[in-house]
Amino acid sequence: PRDTRRPLQGGAMAIIYSLVARGTCVLAEFTSTSGNFTTVTRRILEKLPSEDSRMSYVYDRHVFHYIVDEGLTFLCMADEEFGRRVPFAFLEDIKARWFNTYGSSGAHALAYGMNEDFSRVLSRQMDFHSNDGDADAINRVRGEIDEVKAVMVDNIERVLERGEKIELLVDKTDSLSQQAFRFKKQSNGLRRALWWKNCKLTLLLTTAAGVVVLLVLMGFCGATFQHCRA
Length: 230
Description:
By secondary structure, the protein is α+β, with helices and mostly antiparallel strands. Helices cover 44% and strands 20% of the residues. It has helices spanning 37-47, 85-102, 115-131, 134-142, 176-221; strands at residues 15-22, 25-31, 34-35, 53-59, 62-69, 72-79, 152-155, 170-171.
């Protein structure tokens, strides 16, 4: 049956934040909202095992889901009521796209070395898995995700040291990062439009100046330049 899941109010995504990291070195990340969850994520990355694994950690009303594969961590934060199947389908999707694009280069990449390109992939797939009702059905048909029921769920207090847990703040109405991304795209488009407009203006002025010079010469030399011939 068709998934009747609808986008959250205010256009906010159910998958709020995602990243790809090697240990604590973040290679690419994207968020559609503002908040302090990036700080919380860095704390979590310090505690995750290096061997291949998958797990979910409940943090207040949100859940951090992660997959560790070939030394890389694929992590996302989602609303608790969004469940686990779709977030893990998203992580499997991102993992496949990462390895298809970069292979093993993530093992030696610098921090944010792939962020410029792959953050766009994270953004696009977060929106797809959060808001497209067919996304979950597609993953079921293809059989791309493992049985999520086998994934352990634990509370974040078991991972963080006493006193390390901080209040998780998420502002779903701000969408600062998404606005910045759109502003950058609009700025690039405006810059190209202005450049092309300047080129056309320069060409027009050059043509007009050439016509004026030609008319002046024709005034002195005649229409066929007979008066100026040696």
